[in-house]
Amino acid sequence: MERHGIVISISVPPDKQPILKRIDELALREYRRSKGARSKLTLKAWQEYLDNHYPGNPQPPLFNLSRLQDESMDKRAIIFLRIHRKLGFKRIAKIVGRSVGYVYDTCKDLKEIKPIRYGGRFPFETYRKRFEALMKGEYATPQEAFRFP
């Protein structure tokens, strides 16, 4: 009877070791200190990646006009959505088209905010359109862009 699967090793450069530490912390929380927690989390992440990218990589266009705008507006929108709309990191990442890690790093100096739970379906498309309009300059501030009647 085979107890173990394939064993692989990866190289983690010194500047990326904090990522590995955060992965270990998350693995311990997710899998309640069970044996092989890091492996389970890694396989789960790989599966999510494959689900989103296999057989081809549906990457965004190489030339994205919203990235040419002032990046501080991007960060101001993220902070506004976190503080005033009380959205979670995943929802904000989906709205602004950035990674959850980027959103987390942008908000890491803020006080802890408990995200609001929404009943029913969250209006991602509405938020996304407002964010794109903000980045194109149609709105002057995030407060103006995300003000809903």
Q: Average the pLDDT over all residues and give the rounded result.
A: 81
| Radius of gyration, whole Å | 19 Å
Question: Any idea what the shape is?
Answer: elongated
Largest sheet: none
Tell me the quaternary state: single chain
**Helicity level, as a percent range?**
40-55%
Spans of at least 5 consecutive residues whose pLDDT stays below 50 are 61-68
* H-E string: HHHHHHH
Structural class: mainly alpha
> What is the count of β-strands?
0
Give the amount of beta strand, in percent.
under 5%
Total number of helical segments? 7
Number of domains: 2
* Termini Cα gap: 64 Å
Describe this structure in words.
The chain contains 7 helices and no strands. Helix 1 crosses helix 2 and helix 4 crosses helix 5. The radius of gyration is 19 Å and the shape is elongated. 13% of the residues are buried.
Topology:
Elements: H1 17-30, H2 37-53, H3 71-83, H4 89-96, H5 100-107, H6 124-136, H7 142-145
What are the key terms here?
mainly alpha, about 150 residues, 7 helices, 2 domains
Question: What's this, in brief?
Answer:
With 149 residues, the protein is mainly α.
